[in-house]
Amino acid sequence: MTLKVYLSGEIHTDWRERIIDGAAGMDVSFNSPVTDHAASDDCGVRILGEEPNKYWHDHKGAMVNAIRTRKGISDADVVVVRFGEKYKQWNAAFDAGYAAALGKSLIVLHGPDHQHALKEVDAAALAVAEHPEQVVDVLRYVLTGSLPG
């Protein structure tokens, strides 16, 4: 069995690399949104033309980014959504809802401080992890049936 995993959510820590590195040797392929914050924010205006109004600047970027996000989530077998500690990732919540609406297997990743705020998101998930290594363990179990050592 091969798993296609989409890694959505915060871009300020190394959680993606920890999952990808931990899954080395497993039959897993990974995809994610553009994690270069400046490129993600400015892609719409850099490609389609400047906007004097910040709303339209952000709107253009969100629409261009949505092309990649929709494709990545649609193609995924498993969607992992990480909610970081420092910023409110409204886009991550949207991605989790989109994945749930598509019937994707959803793993949510966040610390205990977000349990109450994310209770509805957590209820839609098939696993709620606090650490990237737990996500790796879930993927390994799904692929091989083996439990962590």
Task: Tell me what the structure shows.
- The protein has 149 residues and is α/β, with parallel strands linked by helices.
- The chain has a domain at 3-35 and 74-144: Rossmann fold.
- It has six helices and five strands.
- The chain has a five-stranded parallel sheet, sandwiched between helices.
- Helix 5 (119-124) links the parallel strand 4 and strand 5.
- Helix 2 crosses helix 3 (54-75).
- The longest helix has 22 residues, at 54-75.
- It starts with a strand and ends in a 5-residue tail after the last helix.
- The relative contact order is 0.19.
- The model has no long low-confidence stretch (mean pLDDT 96).
Binned, the helix content reads 40-55%
Instruction: Provide the β-strand percentage band.
Output: 15-25%
Q: Under CATH, the topology of the domain at 3-35 and 74-144 is which? A: Rossmann fold
* Mass-distribution shape: globular
Number of extended strands:
5
What are the low-pLDDT stretches, counting only 5+ consecutive residues below 50?
Answer: none
